[in-house]
Specification:
Blueprint lengths: L6 H10 L12 E2 L4 H9 L5 E6 L5 H7 L4 E6 L5 H7 L6 E5 L7 H8 L4 E7 L5 H10 L6 E7 H7 L10 H9 E9 L4 E2 L6 E8 L10 H13 L5 H9 L3 H10 L13 H11 L2
Parallel strand pairs: 2-3, 2-5, 3-4, 5-6
Antiparallel strand pairs: 1-8, 6-9, 7-9
Helix pairs in contact: 2-3, 6-8, 9-10, 9-12, 11-12
């Protein structure tokens, strides 16, 4: 097996395979030997798990997942990594590679056909540019998965796991909380990657809920309110929602008063329950 935490081994492997980094894909390969085992342990609580990995890179995390999971299906966008992965994963017969765009593939079909009878988790080391879109796609698709364990930039991790009603929270925090129970697992320094990015990262885990954490009369309207409310953070909820959704301010103020909230409150101060209540009243 290759020592995939040794930079010289990685560089030799990539050179032999004719691989070149693609800046547009945000490729940074992990070389810290302690990170992937910890991520894999979090993603596979027992050996009956099937793991859908997104973006295996050179396979450093894939190897750890394959050592713990019943089956691993890894989706990789970059065809240039095909010869690299053929070498690094040659010792494992429970790994299947699919080359394509995870945002465009039928993940529900992949899960149904590849992981029959297994519990399923998602695990990934995500480049910054696709973090929020991919996580939201996984959650909104309501796939039959138990957890999503991902490494993202530390700033994004803080926002995704922020307590609703805190200054750090935003529209994406509310959306993540609506579908899952998010928690920060551990941080990863920028020196843990090749090439090293300019910022640190963090591993988070989203435990997917069987049903949303709050009851809404209309899910689409709830998210319209959330998106509008957080679109102009310096403004009050009344002003933001009124201007973005063309709703009369008096209707919004009345909804806030019925929930026992001040008309001067900002969206970031509301809890999930309060956001749901206000949405249900406004769009009644």
């Amino acid at each position: 097996m290759y020592n995939l935490s040794n930079p010289s081994v990685i560089k030799k492997l990539l050179d032999e395979s004719g691989f070149s980094f693609k800046k547009s894909l945000g490729q940074n390969f992990l070389i810290n030997p302690s990170v992937c085992p910890e991520m894999a342990d979090a993603a596979c609580s027992d050996d009956n798990f099937g793991v859908l990995e997104i973006g295996p890179g050179i396979g450093v995390l894939t190897v750890e997942l394959a050592s713990r999971a019943k089956k691993v299906v890894s989706i990789e966008l970059d065809e240039g990594l095909r010869p690299v992965l053929a070498k690094t994963l040659s010792d494992f017969d429970n790994v299947e590679l699919i080359f394509g765009d995870a945002m465009k593939l039928d993940l529900r079909k992949i899960i149904a056909t590849k992981f029959a009878g297994m519990k399923v988790s998602v695990c990934a080391n995500l480049p910054y540019y696709i973090t929020s879109p991919l996580i939201m796609m996984l959650l909104e698709s309501k796939l039959p998965i138990e957890t999503i364990t991902v490494m993202v930039q530390k700033e994004a991790a803080t926002r995704l796991c922020a307590k609703i009603g805190s200054r750090e929270s935003g529209a994406v925090s509310v959306a993540v909380k609506y579908y899952s129970d998010p928690k920060m697992l551990f941080t990863v320094s920028h020196g843990s990657f090749l090439p090293a990015p300019k910022v640190d990262s963090a591993v988070i885990q989203l435990s997917v809920l069987k049903s949303p954490c709050v009851v809404t009369n209309n899910e689409a309207n709830f998210f319209k309110l959330v998106k509008a409310g957080f679109s102009q953070r310096r403004k009050t909820l009344v002003n933001s929602v009124s201007s973005m959704l063309s709703i009369d301010k008096s209707s919004i103020i009345l909804a806030l008063e019925q929930c026992g909230l001040s008309p001067d409150i900002r969206t970031e101060k509301l809890t999930m329950e309060q956001l749901s209540q206000v949405s249900n009243i406004i769009f009644k």
